[in-house]
Design a protein that fits this description.
Elements (H helix, E strand, L loop, with lengths): L6 H18 L8 E3 L6 E7 L20 E7 L1 E10 L2 H5 L1 H27 L21 H13 L8 E5 L1 H7 L3 H4 L17 E3 L2 E5 L5 E2 L2 E8 L3 E16 L4 E14 L5 E7 L1
Parallel strand pairs: 1-10, 5-7
Antiparallel strand pairs: 2-3, 4-11, 5-9, 6-7, 8-9, 9-12, 10-11
Helix pairs in contact: 1-3
Pfam families: Phage_capsid_2
Protein name: Phage major capsid protein
Length: 277
């Protein structure tokens, strides 16, 4: 590395990438069970089954719940997002121009984080599809599909504790806005959101949000109604930025990197809503 590299530029650029990632990099990470500081190529998320309470006789032995313990392994992968930054004075002194490159790296890593979570959601098997009108694959995202997913979560004793989320495509978000019960409900203000600058609202005890990266299979968009604990997201290395000076190019190479993974923990806590698009 050249001794002429501007350390102030490096430190400020790193701070901007991290801030951008936290502010707008990932939409889904705050909605799942996340573990940081993982050491190694994988980590384990424990899964605990339902317990059963029972009475006991006076002075008798307290009955045990016989909980079903199991573990789900989450493998981590390394991801990179690099870019060349020419050593021009306007890049080094103009905050707006430098922020463009910083945000690009943060967005790329954020999209990858969401891709990992969506891939884990796609492995779920429960679906809100039936023979009733409005629940077939020829329909968009209808109130009937939403209520069927809602019923399935309730029937599976998925906690209604404020940690339920629903993610839909933008087409499906428009369809929801045509449902009176959804459109007329009060929108959630910025103060109630765990992240800023996005559309979201509460309905049926869940936080609903649109997302452009949901899987589309043929003409079907996969939307999800789920509980936070149903998906695990692990981080060995959060967003890290390395900047090196290359004199032959008269430019800095900005390398943004992270090591993360996601896995399905509890299939009962996720319901897929297939919507024709």
């Amino acid at each position: 590395m050249s001794a002429t590299i501007d350390q102030a530029f490096v430190k400020q650029f790193q701070a901007e990438v991290h801030e951008a990632f936290q502010r707008q990099g990932s939409k889904l990470r705050p909605t799942v069970r996340s573990k940081t500081g993982v050491h190694g190529a994988s980590t384990v998320f424990p899964r605990v089954g339902k317990g059963t309470a029972a009475a006991k006789a006076r002075n008798g032995v307290v009955p045990v719940m016989n909980l079903d313990y199991s573990a789900v392994e989450c493998f981590l992968q390394d991801y990179y997002a690099g870019e060349w930054v020419d050593k021009l004075d306007e890049i080094k002194t103009n905050v707006d121009e430098r922020a463009v490159v910083a945000n690009a790296g943060a967005y790329a890593l954020g999209r990858k984080t969401d891709e990992l979570i969506i891939a884990a959601l796609d492995t779920a098997t429960q679906e809100a599809v039936g023979t009733a009108a409005g629940t077939t694959d020829t329909d968009g995202l209808t109130k009937a599909k939403v209520l069927l997913a809602f019923e399935k979560l309730g029937a599976a004793d998925v906690p209604d504790d404020g940690n339920r989320f629903a993610v839909v495509g933008w087409k499906q978000w428009s369809q929801l806005l045509q449902i009176e019960e959804f459109a007329n409900a009060q929108y959630v203000g910025d103060a109630d959101l765990p992240w800023k600058g996005m559309q979201a609202k509460r309905w049926l005890g869940a936080l609903w949000m649109p997302h452009s990266g949901l899987t589309k299979s043929g003409n079907l968009r996969f939307c999800y109604f789920y509980h936070r604990t149903a998906i695990g997201h692990a981080v060995a290395q959060d967003v890290m930025t390395d900047i090196t000076w290359h004199g032959d190019r008269a430019a800095h190479f900005v390398n943004n990197m992270m090591s993360q993974g996601a896995v399905l923990i509890d299939d009962a806590g996720i319901v897929r809503m297939r919507a024709a698009e």
